[in-house]
Amino acid sequence: MTIYSCETHIGHALDMFVATEKKIPLMENISEEEKLSTKCEYCEERATYIVANK
C-alpha cells in the first residue's frame, strides 16, 4: 500500500495505513521531481509525503 499525502492530511494518511495494513508504515518526503506531478490522495494539493510499507 502506498499513500501520497500533503502536510495537512499526513495524520489521516498514517491512520488509514495502520487501519488497513495493521502495520507501522514508513513515512518519507517525496523527491522534488515527484512533488511537481503528484497530488495528495485526499485533496488537490501537491503531495509532500509518501506513506508505504516498503
Layout of secondary structure:
Blueprint: E1 2-5, H1 10-21, E2 26-29, H2 32-37, E3 49-52
Antiparallel strand pairs: 1-3, 2-3
Can you describe what's shown?
The protein has two helices and three strands, in the order E-H-E-H-E. By secondary structure, it is an alpha+beta fold. It has one domain (2-52). It has a three-stranded antiparallel beta sheet, covered by helices on one side. The radius of gyration is 10 Å and the shape is globular.
Concise synopsis of the structure shown:
By secondary structure, the chain is α+β, with helices and mostly antiparallel strands.
Low-confidence stretches: none
* Spatial ordering of strands, largest sheet: 1-3-2
Please state the CA-atom Rg, rounded to the nearest Å.
10 Å
End-to-end Cα distance, whole Å, is: 9 Å
DSSP E strands, number? 3
The computed structural class is: alpha+beta
Overall mean pLDDT score? 94
Number of helices: 2
Question: What is the helix content?
Answer: 25-40%
Series of secondary-structure elements, N-terminal to C-terminal: EHEHE
Query: Could you tell me the strand content as a percent range?
Result: 15-25%
